[in-house]
Amino acid sequence: MKHGMISAPQPEAVEAGLDILAAGGNVVDAAIGAALVQTVVDPQMCGIAGFGSMQIYLPEHGVHTFIDFHGRAPQATRPEMWQDKIVRECDDGFGFVLKGEVNEIGYQSATTPLTIKAFDEALTRFGSRTLAELIGPAIDYCDNGFAVRPDVHAFWMQPAQYGRIERIRVLRDHPATAKIYTKLDGSIYKVGEVLRNPDMGRTYRRIAEQGVDDFYHGEIAQRIARDMAQHGGLIGLQDLADCRTENCEPLWTTYRGHRVATNQPPGGGLMIVLMLNILENFDLAAMGHNSADYIATVSEAMKIATAEKDARMGDPRFVDIPMAELTSKEFAARMAERIRRGEKTHVPRLNAGNPESRNTTHICVADTKGAVVTMTHSLGSSSGVVTDGLGFMYNNCMMVFDPRPGRAGSLAPGKARFSAMSPTLVFRDDKPFFAVGAPGGTTITMGNLQAILNAVDFDMSAQQAVSAPRFCATSDTIELTNRILRATQRELEARGYPVLRHAHSYMFPLVHALRMHDGRIDGGADPASDGIAAAI
Asked: 306: helix, coil or strand?
């Protein structure tokens, strides 16, 4: 009898988590142990200097909570500091293109690093192992190396588009980074070649020996702050000392008799709630999966949620979010009526360019006792900065702030930018039924939404739910993957929709899910990723 399952984009991480479950660890131990491996084997997708959101459900202990660890703008941040550098807003709303790419790459692009603090807190509060006990496999991958996977290499090779940098600069622009990620001749590692990072291994050993406090108050903190100061970075010692996670109650809604728990702002769960509430007013199953009616209806819900996100959602410490209105069934019913009347929601964009790269990572862990962890964590698209000798890369989450003062997403010291991260848990008969999450920038909520609809409205398994052809609407354009029928595309265009067909059969967020059904767990790993779902 299988008693636990894990789904993630990296096989190395899944296996590390399974080993922890097999040795008697709980789902929190497995999730954090696997996530630590993710920081090594997917080092531009995630890292200990990143940010994220973690939903933890432990019914035997009466625990259902979120540990949110969103990066915050350093205290040196000023609302107007980049307003004269604006080139354009990304088409999907994921950040701005600025002159000199100061928000995208380099020392000023990093928000406060919270990932390692969140991992340690989760284990301290809910785990049965310590971080020092679980970090060993990650250290092994640092010292002995990992084989570069296709997804890792593909990220490195993303070309420059519409003013955005070519991603290979993340590896080459800074000498301490190039020392790790390029060879002596300046070339990068090919798929299958082994990449080692002994500096990161030494840092991880120090954290295991000295504790996570060293990262925020001790020698590691001193080295971070000194490096930032020498290179014009914004993060200082006080920023590190002030790092705090947020412990939040889930944000709830209902959908067709199911209870749905997702994260609070500045996470993307409010968008999930709004879209589900709107779509509950339609018989989606009767429309037919991925029919023109279905795609048009769901896309309009996506556009409404995106427009509301841009205008009225953000960090609740800084933005007065109308939560009662945006979570209400009455508001959703009015939005649904707009869709029925044939109204098309416009999503404003400033000098629209190309969608930004969609990079993060996710992990889902569940056992047959009903315990679940679903966590998304990220470096954004990574800053390219490594402090010499420490080995890990910093996030570049400053990229997604709005450089125009006076807006919901504007820059401010201590502020977190709204994130589409939305690790979500669906309950059926008060028991976990479907756990889902994804990396993918602003498309995360759209992928999570479609996986939930696939599982609830179309009775798909977890693998079917994450593999079914997807679409996305984070602007006026409906984006289709190449497995959506061209006849459907023609019908959408006949209705007046701008449509963009991608050459990829699988894309947008890399959705991973677990389904708890009839006393069993089945898992799904997005076919666009290198990942797997496996049980122990």
From this structure: helix
The count of other CB atoms within 10 Å of the CB of residue 37 is 29
CB atoms within 10 A of CB 354: 15
Mind listing the pLDDT tens digit for each residue in 185-201?
999 999 999 999 999 99
Kindly report whether the peptide bond that precedes residue 266 is cis, defined as omega within 30 degrees of 0. Answer: yes
Q: State whether the Cα torsion 88-91-95-100 is positive or negative.
A: negative
Active site residue 253: no
pLDDT digits (tens, 9 = 90+) for 2-15: 789 999 999 999 99
Give the residue from 242, 224, 228 showing the smallest Cα distance to 117. Answer: 242
Structural domains of the chain in order of their starting residue, each with its CATH number: 249-354+425-529 (1.10.246.130)
Q: Among residues 111, 297, 360, 376, which one is catalytic?
A: 360
* Secondary structure (3-state) at 376: strand
Yes or no: say if 7 and 462 are a contact pair by the CB < 8 Å rule.
Answer: yes
Q: What integer pLDDT is reported at residue 269 of this predicted model?
A: 98
**Structure token pair of residue 503:** 């050459």
What is the SS3 assignment for 468-503? CCCEECCCCCEEECCCCCHHHHHHHHHCCCCEEECC
Map tokens 């006949």 to a residue.
494
Mutual angle of helices 292-312 and 444-456, in 10-degree steps: 140
